[in-house]
Write a sequence for this structure.
């Protein structure tokens, strides 16, 4: 409605755009603005092609002849172009766009044929007129998830926060855990692809909009699920619902034991390397000398870790966890064996992943599976292949990040849900889903992890 008032092409809009509108005027203006939109939705099943259906844009496929019949296309071959008056055609019966065809060519949808589509017809539509005014700002989007490297993420955040004159990037497709600090630049709107689980999740995600201007827009899409439909009917319970006070149990035994190991690992010399390939190579061989250096370094810091643990947590917290000085000492004595278990499991996973790669090398059969296996090995160990971004070390979003790897096996603290300390992680199978699992650096949309508890 505001666009019609400002563009001054709505016959029901007042001449003075600053004048206050009555309710009746608002209804007339809105009806005139929404009418063509509803017509386009009802007439055109593929609404995303509106500009094509209006004759402003056309599609061509790079590298393909005009008469090529295809069943599936690579998205990289699709090109949008603006046809000239001599190239712009449509069906004279059903008005289906036929730009790029020849006059009198048969329509593939009805009994009509191609006729010229004049500039007057195309530019007479209000959508095209407003588009050609040049006041609309295009959307330029990038991905901001755990799939990108740390270096790439920093570049994207700087581009997003930069003024429009310096960077056109104005849309980020993010995972729910996106965090860019308090100042998220000129972020004015957040679109949620589903209704968050709780009011605190809603406040966290939607609260990122308008931090600089104090005015923001949050749009949530309600899916056809009981949860989303309930809050669609009762939005106030999500928008202004009760947010419980965050709490942490200081008597969590597993948290205490993991942080005890973290003290020893942090003080060890040498400490953990930046990539798993420092300990396991691409052939699945364990670098015994490097692993032993890590084990001895961690073992030598047991006394320091015990002393710092007692000073930090005190008798009250340790007693609440059911831990004694002897229990802490016994746990640290088991750490060398657990370090070796992580290395053995990683080596075993590499060997399993190499099977399709070796089958391809021996028989030249299964090229796709071989390439995928090679890529998974490179990602698991953080081997620079030249096909991936990144520096010399893995980030905490990578499956090959040692700190993340040891957290997965219950040795060190991690951001994932804690697994009971008495359950050790064992690999029972290797697949793409394992390396792509969100807790191994993948996205939340990937399949379940191929981990099992023993």
């Amino acid at each position: 409605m505001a666009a019609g008032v400002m563009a001054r092409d709505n016959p029901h809009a007042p001449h003075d755009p600053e004048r206050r509108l009555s309710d009746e005027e608002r209804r007339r203006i809105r009806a005139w603005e929404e009418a063509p939109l509803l017509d386009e939705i009802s007439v055109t099943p593929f609404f995303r092609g509106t500009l094509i259906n209006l004759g402003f844009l056309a599609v061509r496929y790079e590298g393909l002849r005009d008469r090529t019949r295809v069943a599936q296309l690579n998205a990289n071959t699709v090109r949008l172009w603006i046809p000239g008056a001599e190239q712009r055609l449509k069906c004279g019966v059903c008005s289906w766009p036929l730009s790029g065809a020849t006059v009198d060519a048969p329509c593939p949808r009805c009994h009509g044929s191609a006729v010229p589509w004049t500039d007057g017809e195309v530019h007479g539509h209000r959508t095209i007129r407003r588009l050609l005014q040049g006041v609309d700002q295009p959307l330029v989007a990038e991905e901001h998830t755990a799939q990108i490297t740390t270096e790439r993420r920093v570049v994207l955040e700087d581009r997003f926060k930069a003024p429009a004159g310096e960077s056109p990037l104005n849309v980020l497709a993010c995972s729910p855990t996106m965090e860019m600090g308090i100042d998220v630049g000129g972020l004015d709107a957040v679109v949620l692809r589903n209704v968050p689980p709780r009011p605190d999740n809603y406040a966290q995600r939607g609260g990122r909009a308008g931090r600089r201007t104090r005015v923001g827009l949050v749009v949530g899409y309600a899916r056809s699920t009981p949860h989303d439909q309930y809050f669609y009917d009762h939005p106030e319970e999500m928008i202004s619902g009760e947010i419980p006070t965050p709490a942490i149990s200081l008597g969590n035994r597993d948290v205490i034991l993991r942080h005890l190991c973290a003290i020893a690992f942090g003080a060890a010399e040498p400490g953990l390397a930046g990539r798993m390939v420092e300990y396991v190579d691409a052939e699945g061989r364990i670098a015994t000398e490097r692993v032993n250096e890590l084990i001895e370094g961690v073992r030598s810091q047991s006394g320091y870790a015990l002393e710092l643990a007692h000073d930090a947590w005190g008798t009250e917290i340790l007693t609440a966890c059911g831990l004694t000085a002897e229990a802490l000492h016994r746990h640290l004595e088991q750490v060398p064996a657990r370090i070796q278990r992580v290395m053995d499991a990683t080596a075993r996973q590499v060997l399993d992943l190499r099977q399709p790669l070796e089958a391809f090398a021996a028989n030249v059969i299964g090229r796709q599976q071989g390439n995928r296996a090679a890529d998974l090995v490179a990602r698991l160990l953080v081997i620079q292949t030249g096909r991936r971004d990144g520096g010399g070390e893995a980030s905490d979003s990578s499956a090959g990040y040692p700190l993340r790897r040891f957290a997965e096996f219950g040795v060190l603290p991690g951001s994932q849900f804690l697994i009971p300390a008495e359950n050790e992680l064992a690999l029972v199978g290797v697949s793409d889903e394992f390396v792509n699992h969100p807790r191994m650096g993948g996205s939340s949309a990937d399949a379940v992890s191929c981990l099992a508890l023993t």
Q: What stands out?
A: The longest strand covers residues 58-61. Strands lie at 58-61, 78-81, 89-91, 114-116, 141-144, 171-174, 189-192, 217-220, 425-427, 451-453. DSSP finds 16 helices and ten strands in the chain.
